[in-house]
Amino acid sequence: MPDRIAPLAITAYTATCAAGRGSGAIARALETRSGGLTANSLSTQPLACKIGRVDGLEDLRLPDALASLDSRNHRLAWLGLDQDGFRERALALRERHGASRVALVLGTSTSSIGETERAYRELDADGHFPAAQRRASIHQPHALGLFVAHALGLAGPSLTIATACSSSAKVFASAARMLHLGLVDAAIVGGVDTLCDSVLFGFNSLQLVSDEECRPFDANRRGLSLGEAAGFAILERTPQSGKVEKGTPLLIGYGESSDAHHMSAPHPQGLGAERALDDALARAGIRASQVDYINLHGTASLHNDAMEAALIARRFPATTRASSTKGWSGHTLGAAGILETAISLIALERGLAPGTLNTRELDPVCGPQLRTDNAEADLRIALSNSFGFGGNNCCLAFARGDEA
Amino acid sequence: MSVALELAIEGIGVCAPGMADWSAARDALRSMNRPDTSACTRPAPALLSPNERRRAPDSVLLALAAAEQACAMAGQAPRELPNVFASAYGDLAINDYLCAVLARTPLEVSPTRFHNSVHNAPAGYWTIAAGCMASSTALSAGGATFAAGLLEAAAIVASEASPVLYVAFDVAAAGPLAAVIACDVPFGVAFVLAPARPEPLARLRLQFRSDAAAELVPLPASLHALRERNPAAASLPLLAALARSEAGGFDFALHADQDLPASTLHLEISF
Question: Global pTM?
Answer without folding.
Answer: 0.98
